[in-house]
Design goal:
This protein is mostly beta strands. The chain folds into 2 domains: 267 residues, no CATH class; 76 residues, Carboxypeptidase-like, regulatory domain (Immunoglobulin-like). Helix content is 4%, strand content 46%. Strand 19 and strand 20 form a beta hairpin. The longest helix is centred in the first third of the chain and has 14 residues.
Amino acid sequence: MNGEIQSGRGAGQTMPYLRAFALVLALAGAVAPDRVLAQAGNSSSLFSASPSLGAFPPAPGPGRGGGGDGFGSSGMLAPPMRGPPAIAPTPMVPAGQVALALSAKFGSDAAPITGGLTWRVYAAKPQPDGNFPLLREDKSPAPTIVLPAGAYIVHVGFGLANAVKPVTLRSATVREEFDLPAGGLRMEGKVGDARIPAAQISFDVFKGSQFEPSDRRPIAEHIASGAVVVVPDGTYYIVSNYGDANSVVRSDIRVQAGKLTDVVVNHRAAVITLKLVNEKGGEALANTAWSVLTPGGDVIKESIGAFPRVVLAEGEYRAIARNEGNVFEREFKVVTGVDGDVEVLAK
């Protein structure tokens, strides 16, 4: 509705590897308007240590500074942590087995990722039922896994970003570095210059553009304001829901690998409190059933209570109140950022 926005790589050339690629992505949960102004707060700095998969917790404070989410006070991606990532000590390698040393980066020129990774090693050959057996799983940033010599498929996941490649182990230690072409997406909402409280707004993220035919299932939903979602680089569209009525903003956004994209969505809306009163300024009557309609008669919101609060997009509406078998109504107008009461007289 009314509003504006400011703002795996697979390897292998044989069919079994392609089938394995599809399998591990499925197991990892990967991706199977009014005026729009994009303002992306991107930096060439790279991701540093990160929490677990999915959406990160909101960074602290209005400036988002100094948190442990891997992002600096400027809202840009923080530089990598000092020193190399924590690498597990190389285990003893029995005869007939080979050590597989793994690491991952956000792009070929980046420093190694120091947290938030999940590694999975699968057998290269499927079972009779078509499934590829999972042999190892590790959440270390740079694990060394000892396996019998042979062929395997390795998958690494970080947030919604994934990479897969086949690996062949022979006699010497094998080192494999994965390139995760992913970036961060952080969203918040405003009405004018006022920030919308996190409890009143949420975001859904979809793959591709809203103007192109595609799978309309969200890849991430109910994302809290200020949280960071890690996604593969590419085009996405976000749906911002302020309240639970009709203040909805949609917009396309571009996420680049190794960068944090800050999105500020401006909603043209206000918070309205409905009251049924016997006289102007009087006490609200309890047990009142409410309906908010557009001038054309479309129902926007229904609720029951003495003074329900509803977030409405800018525009004209009609409030209908039902109390003790009587029906009362009133037309009213919503102006962006002007919160207030709408009283309906019980006469």
